Amino acid sequence: MNSTEEKKKLFKKLESLATEKRNSSTLEIDLASAGEIARLINAEDQKVALQVEKKVDVIAEVIELVSDAFQMGGAYFILVQEPAEGLGYLTRQKCPPTFGTPPEQVEGFIAGGEAAMFVAQEGAEDSEEIGAEAVEEAKVAPPDIVCGLAASGRTPYVHGAIKEAAKRGCKTILVTTVPAEQIDLDVDYLIDVPVGPEVIMGSTRMKSGTAQKMVLNMITTGAMIRQGKIYENVMVDLMLSNKKLEERAKRILMIFSEVDYEKAESLLDEANGHVKTALLMALGGLNLEEAKKLLKKNGGFVRKALLGINEK
Fold first, then answer.
1. What does DSSP assign to residue 312?
2. Is the peptide bond before 143 cis (omega within 30 degrees of 0)?
3. Which one, of 289, 311, 312, 292, lies nearest residue 302 by Cα?
4. How close are the terminal C-alpha atoms of the chain, in Å?
5. How far apart (Å, rounded) are the C-alpha atoms in residues 159 and 128?
6. DSSP for 265-280?
7. How far is 257 from 255, CA to CA, in rounded Å?
8. 59 with 220: CB under 8 angstroms?
9. Which domains does the chain have, with CATH numbers?
10. Using one digit for the tens of pLDDT, what is the confidence trace for 87-145?
11. How far apart are CA 229 and CA 236, in angstroms?
12. How far, in Å, CA of 213 to CA of 197, rounded?
């Protein structure tokens, strides 16, 4: 801020935010035993899911939005306010190995760049221009979606990015943990989860971080389910990028079919590590080309492909 007046204005805004108020339930936490501290934090955390529950309708709309964008080849961009939370980065890292998505489909931006995950980049989140530049540099365009994460709902970096995305014709989302009436940013989808004062005043990595992670998990997992990445309730589109995932893939084949370990390994080798294809081969008695063709015909959904076999 360049003037005393601007600083006072920011001070008043912060003072009014629910995330910056004191929690009446934890006023004596500094005198509490370890057990009491754990119970107090747990009691506050339990309130988070109840607040998220109130937003399932708009979250469902966003799940469809993201799924449709993926179908059209769009990316789902995530902007992060708090480097310490790193929620966007975590989501970006986990989607390719667990859902077999291309790395560019889910991106994580952070104020101050990747270095801010480890060392605070002073002032980066205070600039709308830096946020706008991040979107510009990524060449964001429809059907890409920009989702901002801001506990306070007012982070300039996130505002700048969302405004730039809107100018480019992209759909925008804001996930915040203050009530909607405290938000002065136009977005297509507002997911406000007012968790109330934190256990420790202003420590938004706690309830606010938990709420944002729950919402992000619902959006990304929901969109992946809608893309056929799940069979029953199991991830069957793994990218076999490490030994753990290789063994999980074999276990999946053994769970759903009567093949043994060696046969599961052989089917995966034949399917070039593509779990859904190997699964269809095991369950449908298909060869590689038949399984690939049927999977493509059914949009990547294993269950729909199996129903097609059974209807013949």
1. -
2. yes
3. 292
4. 69
5. 6
6. HHHHHHTTT-HHHHHH
7. 6
8. no
9. 7-226 (3.40.50.10490), 230-310 (1.10.8.1080)
10. 665 676 677 667 767 777 888 888 766 655 545 555 567 889 999 999 999 999 999 99
11. 6
12. 18
